[in-house]
């Protein structure tokens, strides 16, 4: 390998260099036994962010209109976070999706049983509210909050 190839592989990133060396990463969800396309496949980031935006907007609306009665209170965002957390725990821990996830055709499933559990919903929601674990993804596109809760967000 000459100097140009070494610099080129460094600039394109470690994944490109590994693929050039013959490593097969497969598709997202392959290691988890999920299909590549269609129902049951890993949810794409755009849908996940859209569902999160809908759920957050609902939480802000509930917090601002019902809890703080429309006044501009600096704590409205804290109330919105609490509403988001409670909504997420109750819905993901029981039926597997929040209203935003349902709207975007997504569902959270437990990797072992396929059904969500309240404890996993609680752990996943708490980590999601911290935000940092949700920003760290693995090669399958799962956030750290999903990995720690042993869940995966799939298409319905």
Describe it for me?
With 156 residues, this protein is mainly alpha-helical. The protein contains 8 helices and 2 strands; from the N terminus they run αααααβαααβ. A two-stranded antiparallel ribbon has the order 1-2. Helix 4 runs antiparallel to helix 6. The longest helix is centred in the middle third of the chain and has 23 residues.
Question: Which terms would index this structure?
Answer:
single chain, 156 residues, mainly alpha, two-stranded antiparallel ribbon, 8 helices, 2 strands, elongated
What is this entry, summarized?
The chain has 156 residues and is mainly alpha-helical. It is 54% helix and 6% strand. The chain has a two-stranded antiparallel ribbon.
Secondary-structure-based class equals: mainly alpha
Number of helices: 8
Helix content estimate: 40-55%
Radius of gyration equals 19 Å
